[in-house]
Write a structure and sequence with these properties.
The chain has 20 helices and 8 strands. The protein has 434 residues and is an alpha/beta fold. The longest helix is centred in the middle third of the chain and has 18 residues, at 245-262. It binds iron/sulfur cluster (2 copies).
Length: 434
Amino acid sequence: MIASDPAIPAFDKQDGQSDEARVEAAMRSFVSEFGVTTALHLESCVRCGLCAEACHFYVTTGDAKYTPVYKLEPFRRAYFREASPFAPLVRALGLVKKPGIVDLEQWQELIYDSCTMCGRCTLICPMGIDIAELVKEARHGMFKAGLLPDRLALMDRTARQWGSTATPGEDLPDILAEAGRSYGVDIPCDLDSADILVTAASAELSEHTKALADAAKILNRIGVKWTMHQGGFDASNIGFNNGDMELQERLTRALIDTAVRIGAKTVILPECGHAYGAARWEAAKWYGQALPVRIIHMTEFLDELIASGRIRVNRIGETATFHDPCQIVRRGGLEAAARRVLAALGFELIELKDHGVTGYCCGGGGGVVSNQRATTLRHKVFEMKQQQIEATGAKRFVTSCGQCRITFEMGARHAHWDKPTESLLELVADNLAG
Ligand code: SF4
Ligand code: SF4
């Protein structure tokens, strides 16, 4: 069993709300989430405990508090008191205690530090309870209550001001020009009209700028009119992770509206898992009509280009193993695309013991990678992933999400492990044929 560092408080509070106001804000938000589906999920748990073995945080620590269904406890109590069929009776007889400020404070670690919203428990649950979705809904209430990790709150404020956690839009032309100079490629910016709008992940706008050049190299090769744009450029949606629905909608809308304004029919999302969840799947919920543009992940795009013969790649001819990003594969359904691209690159794929839709999370999704309080937990998950990767004996290790890649890089530094985590996009760009 491990415990969080006792020197670091297990919860943070933002803004100056009273404790009573925080509880009321959270409860109001929880109640607004209690539709038929949520009710069904909260009513149907049979307490079998199977979800525990699904969760990387439970598996790697053995600590019962990380059992997925336990992470829903205050949310479940709010439901039974406020919205269940017998709610008046439950309240009158005091059968379920109303969550208080201490419950919410203690809960913060369970839904922000030790849940990546990866959905592996959802897959395993015999009752089909979507715990990952319920955690996401619970985060909405915690955000309203000003009860999220300070690091995520800071990123939230930055994204509200800049439209990105990495840079204000006005700096985008300089960042692209610099990346273009460094890697010898033209990266168009702010064109008035284009067929394709290309977006980035936050890390690509700071430490991994080669990814911008890699995407440009491929798009320039196929001869389409494309651009990046200050109006909507960072697709890694911090609102999705924090529970800030207003920001989530604003960030995704900026991508779609910018694409419509310049006449683009396609928006390409970067190698980022939660960008895919927010823009590809969640956007359709609140857009109010069919999305006016096609939104695809970079991996889908590469797969289509190779399958149609618009690009050809050199065969590398080595063994590789692949980490399936949860939001792209288990939650997003893109299991085969990356494998086809790896096959085109001539890799002999040796699968991890747990792979595809049942693969374990990297341990850093859902904002956990940015939350320094969760460092010890992340390292525990990394140890498990490292063992699985080494057991394959594969020479190369590849993934298709920049956040997973950063999580693995941080874990590898800590463990003094010298195997690099490679990007699928980078492999394609570096091995373009002809
Ligand atoms: S969604 Fe993933 S991290 Fe969260 S409780 Fe389920 S298995 Fe664990
Ligand atoms: S696996 Fe499903 S039914 Fe079983 S305890 Fe977990 S949430 Fe409840």
